[in-house]
Queue: 2 jobs
Job 1
Amino acid sequence: MAETRKHHPFFTGAILVTLALLQGCATLDKDECMLADWRLIGYQDGVAGKSAVAVGEYREDCAKHAVVPDLDAYRAGREEGLQEYCKPDNGYRLGNAGHGFVAICPTALEDDFRDAYNVGRKLYLARSTVNKTHSRINNRKKALSNLEDDRAKKLAALIADGLKADQRVMILYEINELQQEMNNTEDEIVGLEHDLANQQNHLDRLARKSAY
């Protein structure tokens, strides 16, 4: 018969608490407080880049159940977790994803982490600029298409039977107005496409220079 493995209650509690934290749970219940592995919780918080004030929330939760967090174990675990969070590759990833900078890294790791974050942040901002210009071009092209449709309708109305002279004059005026707006929109699109080419070149240069 296969041997049934029995998990130590503190091991089980550590798993429960870790899952709760990873799922974004903001509170700890009685069982999680009683069985908590505070070093593991600290480690998870460090890896996630959480502020040290997070332990204050756990203290409030567990005080309801007469449990006091092991602050020394939590801090030791968090310091270990920060060694992972504060790696330059992670700083670059956070910056490149558009996350805000949080100054929580130990002094020995902060400069390299910040430098890598800034590289990623520059790429993020450059890419955002390119995306915004793409969006503006698409919007202006849609506007131009609508203007062309309106002009086509006006041209069709211009040759309709039974129009009076003053009505034809008004339609011609409206067609000229639409044409002028179309010309302006086309010029705007050309300018935006020129900007886009420069922005894309800038983004490509940043990407080539990145060491990450």
Job 2
Amino acid sequence: MVKRIFNFFDKLEDHVRIKLSHTPILYALIGAVGIILLWKGVWDLADLVPALQGWGSIIVGTTILLMSGLLVSFFIGDSIIISGFKREKKLTEKTEAEVKAERAVVEQVISKLDHLEQDLHELKAEKRS
């Protein structure tokens, strides 16, 4: 039952993401509403726990973000840092053809890595024999 629900929402998410990716401003607004409502719910729940007031909230939140590795990536974003180093265009400034070309390169690199991994496993198997 849980697996069916998960699969339903996974497919729904793929469909919605594909549709919304063609209208980035609408996508951003819908995302903003979702994030704000999530934060509102978390905030309301945190108000019910006295230890999560003031400094306690800052300490717990910072600890969670540092332990999960999300502090920098959430507030700045890995892709923003990397694109700054490479002096790349923002994603919204790229054409669809440029994005597709980048995706093809990434898929090609992944394919080569998979092939290298398979070769490595074969070499390890030969070494054991």
